[in-house]
Amino acid sequence: MDAAFTAEQDEIRRALRELVAKRCGPDEAAAAARTPQGYDTALWQTLAEQLALPGLAVPEEFGGAGGTTTELALAGEEMGRALAPSPLLASAVLAAPLIARLGTEEQRRTHLPDLAAGRTTAALALPGASLATALGLAGDGTGDWAGGGRAGGVQAGSGSEGWRLYGQAEQVLDGHSADLLVVAAHTGGFARSRTLLFLVRADAPGVVAVRRTVLDETRPQARVELRDAQAELLGVDDAPAVADALAATGDAAAAVLAAEAAGAAEAALARTVEQTRERERSGRAGSFRAARNRLADVYVTVQAARSAAYYAALGEGAAADGARRGGALALAQALEALRAASTEAVQLSGGDGGGDGSTWEDAAHRYFKRAAGDELLFGPVHRLREQAAERAGLFGAEVAV
After folding, report:
1. Which ranges does the record mark as transmembrane (predicted)?
2. Which of 66, 80, 216, 327 could form a cystine bridge with 60, CB 3.0-4.6 A?
């Protein structure tokens, strides 16, 4: 696909690439991921002040840049290239759009300006391992994924003091460092069962967030426990609107994730190609001649994934009504490309016993862990494709012979 980006969008990409390359090399990214916050807070503030990164897609009336999914995808591509840990996905791609879509005027004016300026961050807390299902990527977003009254979910009850939440969410991206939580909770019991979204301050009594040990440390997660925590209903009591907002947010997020994965795949491939050339220059070509054919196949896969990500991002950016434009399919293709590129990076980096891809902490393995971790969170790939096919009605009728 020959993507036609505006001069401003190209400038966002160029400026972000230069800044991230300068401030977030492999060692810096690894060190930032191991801080208590899980990312470089100084770099995040610089990205906010110089490039308005946290508020790229926040409406201008609430302090943002008024951009679209396209700008977020271009930012994601550059952040993915460096595997730069940041709250971009959790705060700007998942949580802020839900507040913008569903929040009351007061809620939007209270929270969006601080999120857009990077002064605060937010995280989306969903029960169990339901992220891909709730966002309509690997499931249709219906059912009792929010708990349905069973143990393990998040339950909401209302009384004279307002809404209270109890339960826990296991895979909350950047949940340990977020200032504000957007929590999905089940309420209504059997008679009026429904899932709604709530705003919860991370420092409120009864809220405990514990960082989890995960495969990909550049994508930190937390377990959030809610013990009779005070909450504020996001918007109004309208379960169908919540489901629609989650699905629209999910497809936009998939486009950003696809661009991010394509950027990571391209960087992993470039790194492997350079190492292969270095071996050839040093007289160790040998079996690495055959590697060039393998890398050529990966190159085609990566470029196809990049095109699919651009198509999804441009379609989302042009869809003022939030219509779904194929983010899940683009994400499936990009995850496969990242898996292929990172696998070759690991094999060819350490294949002769002297490469730097022979230990679990080396750069090649970091790309591999991002590929595996993202598929666990947002896939698997075959379910992304199955759900997209079901949504398109490909299996809706029998074919007459």
Report:
1. none
2. 66
Residue 273 to residue 56: CA distance in whole angstroms: 33
Q: Which amino acid is at 337?
A: A
Bond before 240 cis per omega within 30 degrees: no
Residue 2 burial (CB < 10 Å; 0-12/13-18/19+)? exposed
Which amino acid would we find at residue 333? Q
Nearest to 112 by CA among 158, 155, 62, 154: 62
The number of angstroms, rounded, from the C-alpha of 269 to the middle of its chain's C-alpha atoms is 21
Q: Which domains does the chain show, CATH number per domain?
A: 7-120 (1.10.540.10), 123-238 (2.40.110.10), 242-391 (1.20.140.10)
Q: Tell me which residue of 112, 116, 85 sits closest to 98, measured CA to CA.
A: 112
Name the β-bridge partners of 163.
158, 231
**What single-letter DSSP state applies at residue 256?**
H
What's the burial of 253, exposed, middle or buried (CB within 10 Å: 0-12/13-18/19+)? buried
Read off the pLDDT of residues 284-343 as tens digits, 9 standing for 90 and up: 555 566 778 889 999 999 999 999 999 999 986 655 444 455 899 999 999 999 999 999
Instruction: Please provide the size of the chain in residues.
Output: 401
Phi, psi angles (nearest 5°) of residue 398: -75, 145
Could you tell me the two tokens for 34?
Answer: 């191991």
Which residue is listed with tokens 């999914």? 69
Token code pair at residue 6: 């505006």
Residues of the chain with pLDDT under 50: 320-323, 351-358, 399-401
